Amino acid sequence: MSISPVKGLIIAAPASGSGKTVVTLGILGHLRAKGVRVASLKAGPDYIDPAFHARATGRACYNADNWAMRHETLSATVATASQDADMVVCEGVMGLFDGATSKAGATSDFAKLTGWPVILVVDSHAQGASAAALVKGFDSLRNDVSISGVIFNRVGSPRHQRVIRDAMTDAVPHIPVLGMIPMEGALELPSRHLGLVQAAEHASLNTIIRRAAQVIERHVDTDALQAMAYGWPAEGQVKPLPPLGQRIAVAQDEAFAFAYPMVLDGWRNQGAEISFFSPLDDEAPREDATAVYLPGGYPELHAYRLASADRFLEGLRAAAGRGAFVYGECGGYMVLGRGMQDADGTIHAMAGLLALGTSFEKRKLHLGYRAVKVIAETPLGPLHARFRGHEFHYASVSSEGPGDHLFEAEDADGAKVGRLGLASGNVFGSFVHLIDRQMKT
Fold it and tell me: Which tens digit of pLDDT belongs to each residue from 95-136?
């Protein structure tokens, strides 16, 4: 597949919490309402924001990860996301220059690669003329990345607007102010320990997107915004990970929602058949599945229900017993273990396919990119095959083994993390969400 060029732009911010997700949702919703065939991307490894984007656009949102993806995967992902679209809107991650390391993986690096214009969303609720100084600093930090426009969020009175506009004219007259968005408490999105509440759990999400789109229509020059979109010659077909089998049954519901669309597309592109089942509805994987994939999610919020899902758990055990490969990531990995302890100290029995116990009784954050090397025989590839991925959870391992470890891991800076995950015959998993395979180094 080749789509060239792909017209796009990037919505970034000086820091997390600036409101760029709601602004992005409003832009996506408004453009779609105008009849624009708009697609979206999310920079970085996040799962939550892409589900919100998908609700706004009516199509899958793909991740664009400048650190974890090979160039060919990144290009193919952009091409896939933009198929049959007029333009792509990419939401950045964290602050514009924040990435996997101080020198790699930031939204700014993706902007440099694509040449797409950067629209900076600035939270101005506690500053006036200083907001212009902030914009000037961001515009001048790197010669290869510049700010094409600014949207000021959470603006107060008309005088507040005049102060900011006057300061922008004096400090950075070449950067247009595309919009001034007033404070809108009704547009705030709820969150939990891993970020925003999932789209499927958010009963009022459609209302928020509609309101955000109306706010964008009133307060942002979307014609100028749309005219800024720039073409990048993205091409290729996504194939980030080798397929686990010919017929892969994928768990999919509110407990297992963290599967990257590009990974599933990649398996299809390599000839695999994908089916879905819901553990929360006590469904078992298809009996003819040659592999079962349990992605991450929030199984800890549904531990009692999962422990009571006899058809699901017996179906997993039956699949493993007939030789199907069974693979779990993060939450899926915990469900493959013997038991999961919730925050109240109650232990819920899980599938018992791996010698693993996990606990949320004493939460501890495990966060960061991972470069991993396979050290157990699995369909992921030969021994010492290398991948990049991301780890983000609050669970702790309460018991582990016996069994072989799955990976040797390093963080984004190359520091040793140690051995991660478990593999027992045809069952394997870890806390790492795999994003892409890597060339051997």
Answer: 999 999 998 999 999 999 999 999 999 999 999 999 999 999
The β-bridge relationship of strands 291-294 and 247-251 is: parallel
271 and 416 belong to one structural domain = yes
SS3 363: coil
Task: Give dist(CA 420, CA 401) in Å, integer.
Answer: 12
Same domain, 165 and 312: no
Query: If you write DSSP's letter for every residue of 297-317 in order, what string do you get?
Result: S-GGGGHHHHHT-HHHHHHHH
Instruction: Tell me: do 58 and 92 sit in the same domain.
Output: yes
Q: Are strands 339-341 and 356-359 parallel, antiparallel or unpaired?
A: parallel
Residue 32's alpha-carbon distances to 4, 222, 436, 440, in angstroms, are: 22, 12, 31, 42
pTM: 0.94
Shared domain check, 260 and 133: no
Active site residue 90: no
User: What pLDDT is stored for residue 440 in this prediction?
Assistant: 61
Long-range contacts of 410-414 (CB under 8 A, 24+ apart): 410/370, 410/371, 410/372, 411/368, 411/369, 411/370, 411/371, 412/67, 412/100, 412/101, 412/104, 412/105, 412/368, 412/369, 412/371, 413/101, 414/371
Catalytic residue among 31, 147, 313, 330: 330
Residues 208 and 293 in one domain: no
Same domain, yes or no: 256 and 215: no
Range of the domain at 10: 6-232
CATH of residue 97 = 3.40.50.300
93 and 175 co-located in one domain:
yes
In a domain, 59, yes or no: yes
Amino acid identity for residue 383 in this structure: L
Torsion of CA 173, 122, 199, 83, to 10 degrees: 20
Pair 49, 182 in one domain:
yes
Radius of gyration over every alpha carbon of the chain, rounded to an integer in angstroms:
22
